[in-house]
Amino acid sequence: MVVQVVMVHGIRTSATMWRAQVTHLQHRGVGAIAVDLPGHGSRMSEEFSVAGAFATIDSAVRDAATRGPVILVGHSMGGLLSIEYAGAEERPPLAAFIAASCTAIPRGPGLAAYRFLARRFDALPDRGMWLTDRVLDLTLPGDTRADFGAGGYAFDTQDVALRSLSVLDLLTALARIEVPLWFVNGQFDQLRVNERLFRRVAPHAELIVVPRTSHLVTAMRPRVFNAVLDLAIATVEQTW
């Protein structure tokens, strides 16, 4: 059986953000599945809900598990949801888990401030896309720049999704995760705020901090992130 990798995107973006990883995995002969969560990408017209997101992840994981051991990979919001999913009381069929740019608890003043800033940004002319495009042009390499927004941006879903994340019990979930686990953060990622706490709760996890990189670690340093995927694949192949 061949290792399978299921990838879950962050807020506002879509499955297209994983194109560099999908291409890398396909060249290796590894199964690669990038999902669109409700309200995002090809499912932009749907309403976002945590239950719908979990159903999407679970369906992809269980389908992939029929073909081989599954590595779940989540970025940002997708990582937070995947932590909760991976650490469910009824353990899902996972062989390993990579949590990227998501070592933060989405609750309290931090979440409220993030939602406030997101709403203010969304109120700008063109919903702030002129600034978003400028920042992405300056920070993302040419081979991933187009991929990040190719599936469109889920502006209308953003606030609902952010509000929904407050129900997650990430620390309880983290304590239940027994499969190999990697936290991958950019050096300047704002969601590193609870990095030490996450490592205490999941002491078997490995932390990889990518220098000179922001929150968009998968797109800013695709080759580095692909190397992390290779590490996870090698680990699963040795133990499966």
UniProtKB/TrEMBL annotation:
Residues 5-227 form the AB hydrolase-1 domain. Keywords: Hydrolase. GO terms for molecular function: hydrolase activity. It comes from the Bacteria. Transmembrane segments: none annotated. It holds the Pfam family Abhydrolase_6. The keyword S-adenosyl-L-methionine does not apply. SUPFAM superfamilies: alpha/beta-Hydrolases (SSF53474). InterPro entries: AB_hydrolase_1, AB_hydrolase_fold, AB_hydrolase_sf. This is Alpha/beta hydrolase.
